[in-house]
Amino acid sequence: MRIAVDAFGGDNAPEAIVKGCVQATAKTSDDIILVGDETKLKELLAGENVPEGRITIRHASEVIETGEPPAEAVRRKKDSSMVVALQLVKNGEADAVVSAGNTGAYLTGAFRYLGRMKGIKRPALTTPMPSVKDVGVILDAGANVDCRPEFLLQFAHMGAIYAEHVLGIKNPRVALLNIGAEEAKGNSLTKETYGLLKEADLNFIGNIEPRDVPYGMADVIVCDGFTGNVVIKLIEGTASALFTMLKGVFYKSIITKLAAMILKPGLKSIKAKMDYSEYGGVPLLGVDGVVFKAHGSSDAKAICNAVCAASTYLSAGVNDKIKEVLLSKNAEDEETAEE
Amino acid sequence: MRIAVDAFGGDNAPEAIVKGCVQATAKTSDDIILVGDETKLKELLAGENVPEGRITIRHASEVIETGEPPAEAVRRKKDSSMVVALQLVKNGEADAVVSAGNTGAYLTGAFRYLGRMKGIKRPALTTPMPSVKDVGVILDAGANVDCRPEFLLQFAHMGAIYAEHVLGIKNPRVALLNIGAEEAKGNSLTKETYGLLKEADLNFIGNIEPRDVPYGMADVIVCDGFTGNVVIKLIEGTASALFTMLKGVFYKSIITKLAAMILKPGLKSIKAKMDYSEYGGVPLLGVDGVVFKAHGSSDAKAICNAVCAASTYLSAGVNDKIKEVLLSKNAEDEETAEE
């Protein structure tokens, strides 16, 4: 399989992207197509030890910047590294695409060039959800700010398939993010969605309260994209603020500094666990192609992880499984409608 | 002034409630009316050193439990400590009411017995927002799960008045909770609300991203009640999960245990800072009466804090200030409409 990588997307592009791709060649058997300015990429690859034929370059003359208005950027910059990488998937020259660039532009580009899978109402960004126990996923994490209950039902199905085939969780526990445990709690969206999830062929365990999210009480957490985005960014911010406060405690005196030194390795592992950006790439489930988003601040290791995640996703055939499940559901719905 | 306290609401009622009220008599000059089973309350007060005439008892034979369906509980249990306490405010026998009981029932009861202030579309729960720096507020924190932009505009005004007159923050910075910094970001609710806030007579500083919330980047954070409730519960859960993980690091060996002991006082202060329940009571802004909600798990100290918060709120005349500002706004709006 071939994975196209937007070499000029992200805060540390193109250096970290190139290094990450080189690292990935040792961890996956898939080939990589680096997309972006050919001269610069050749120069960067010259300094690396690349296994024969595993990385090729596809020239793209433009770059979409972080702050650019998404829709306009995608429309105007047709020869940008991001758009060209997406088109490689559309044309069948690549089987998956990875970018750490402008999220809005990437989503817009994926919708425009690859489109939705047949039967899918809205694709969803599916982000790892770090917790005290294992890692689950939350979706939608920001692709759809205004949602309807039917969208959330599909998110639940797609998330469950992903959790089972990529994260290896058998019969994943699906929960609806809500502000109370009881069925009748929540806003109009969650109340209606609860009814749909209850009837669905899923291991639906009911509502999950925000307080329980970091405790890993569910494997797949379903919500609208606005709430999901609030959740991942608030966990990130709260963890970061707590570590800032901890630093204040540590630097109080020589004795506290010594104590902090002893605890440092343990603290570092907590920090890594809570940082969802550490988990590499995040798939956009429901588009007709394999699209992985890496964090904007990705370093080489994160890019390597993202490429490997895309590779695992490809070999698990997740998109085919989603199509299977949703086509059979749609057929059922049509039958029911006809009765 | 007189503050009615629901003596049988909350996990530690009635003991902690009675103790908290006794403590409050030393910190405020307001008198307290304890509402609930007279025999039990007399018994509890007998063991306490109560200043002459500062605490009286109002009998109520019923109790609304934590798990009861709110609307039904309020309708059926007319002689419950919570409903009787609310009615004392309605009848003018008390100037404020405090309860640590069933939140849903308390909100329902406040709406039913006290109603909204004239001109207020929806009352809002206004919760302290702990941060690395100072403490601001977030509203709505859970009273209205489905909101319209006009509601959020009023929340902003009420929150700003509260922040200024109770928290003592001059010209408080008002921000809209959103998933991006730019005006065009967010869902349909936040996009429309942004336009209203921009035009309002407020120190509106734009959107605040969830990541920045724990850093105290705004004094008043405005959002719908579903999102607000997610925010306060997720911060609580994330902080708690992190402390659970820290414990794991601390108990690893004798050396880490010793290191942890040295850092303990500092860690305790962080924990207290991040716990919004530590800040005593939370007002329901916009109802026609002074209504404070204490956390369900309040101990005597938290109840004392809640009574003191209600007392400060009363002497600052916050409700009159809200009425003033909103009546003048409504008059302006009517003029504009007539033009």
Structure description:
The structure is a homodimer of 339-residue chains. Chain A has helices at residues 15-25, 38-46, 70-76, 81-90, 103-113, 149-165, 188-199, 225-250, 254-274, 300-316, 318-338; strands spanning 2-6, 31-35, 55-58, 96-99, 124-125, 127-129, 136-139, 174-177, 204-208, 220-222, 282-285, 290-293. Chain A is α/β, with parallel strands linked by helices and 339 residues long. In chain A, α3 packs across α5 (103-113) and α8 packs antiparallel against α9 (254-274). In chain A, the strands form two sheets. In chain A, strands 3-2-1-4-12-11-5 form a seven-stranded mixed beta sheet, with helices on both faces. The mean pLDDT of chain A is 92. Chain A contains eleven helices and twelve strands.
